[in-house]
Design a protein that fits this description.
Blueprint lengths: L3 H14 L21 E5 L8 H15 L5 E7 L1 H12 L7 E5 L19 E8 H11 L3 H16 L7 H28 L19
Parallel strand pairs: 1-2, 2-4
Antiparallel strand pairs: 3-4
Helix pairs in contact: 1-6, 2-5, 2-6, 5-6
Length: 214
């Protein structure tokens, strides 16, 4: 769970930079952030319509900021019921949670640069998120889903890169990196919005009229 300082800081930055653009359609947007390695997205829930192009853009922004744009990544968006099964299998906890990260390389040191490995082995792993769980957290924290979801994605990718928050020093390092990514992320999306008539890439369609056949 995120702490209150992170909530306040992220909310202020989000509302100041891109909140006015959240309800606008995403059609015709420029996708200037690219990455060499693929992203596989599996949507296993039906409560919200996912904009795959917008979500991929956001993931690529985060990967670029963290310097792992050449590492493949998987993302599964699921329900509380499925997340409970996944959490039981991988973390021995019989309850849903917001995110589970399954790294390919389990011995990475977040204080050290990523090792020089062959291109075919450049795979960070998979992030699994429960959208209903995240939405419930957003409601209790009074934080927009549009803001919280990129934080969750960042949190997951950092776990794949070896970050953790079990110990105080680990948590401090991870939170500092999250703050850095948050600032650069919203700066990039605000720039995108300015260059595209107020539109910025969103992970979710805001209304049915915006839904394309992707």
């Amino acid at each position: 769970m995120r702490n209150e300082a992170l909530i306040r800081g992220a909310t202020e930055l989000f509302r100041a930079s891109v909140a006015p653009y959240c309800k606008l359609t995403q059609r015709g947007m420029t996708r200037r952030i690219t990455a060499a390695a693929p992203i596989k997205i599996i949507n296993d829930q039906r409560d919200r319509r996912i904009d795959r192009a917008g979500l991929t853009y956001q993931l690529n922004v985060i990967r670029n900021i963290l310097g792992v744009e050449d590492y493949a990544l998987g993302l599964m968006i699921t329900t509380n019921e499925e997340m409970k099964k996944i959490n039981r299998k991988y973390r021995k906890k019989d309850e849903p949670t917001d995110i589970v990260a399954l790294p390919v390389h389990e011995d990475l040191d977040p204080r050290q640069p990523l090792p020089n490995i062959p291109p075919e082995l450049k795979d960070l792993g998979d992030i699994i998120v429960s959208l209903p769980y995240i939405e419930s957290n957003c409601a209790s924290l009074n934080v927009p889903l549009e803001e919280e979801f990129p934080f969750i994605l960042t949190h997951g990718i950092l776990h794949l890169m070896g970050h953790d928050h079990e110990e105080d020093d680990e948590a401090e390092l991870m939170e500092a990196k999250e703050e850095e990514v948050k600032e650069l992320f919203w700066r990039q999306l605000a720039e995108e919005a300015r260059e595209n008539g107020g539109r910025h890439p969103s992970a979710f369609y805001q209304n049915e009229a915006d839904v394309s056949n992707d």
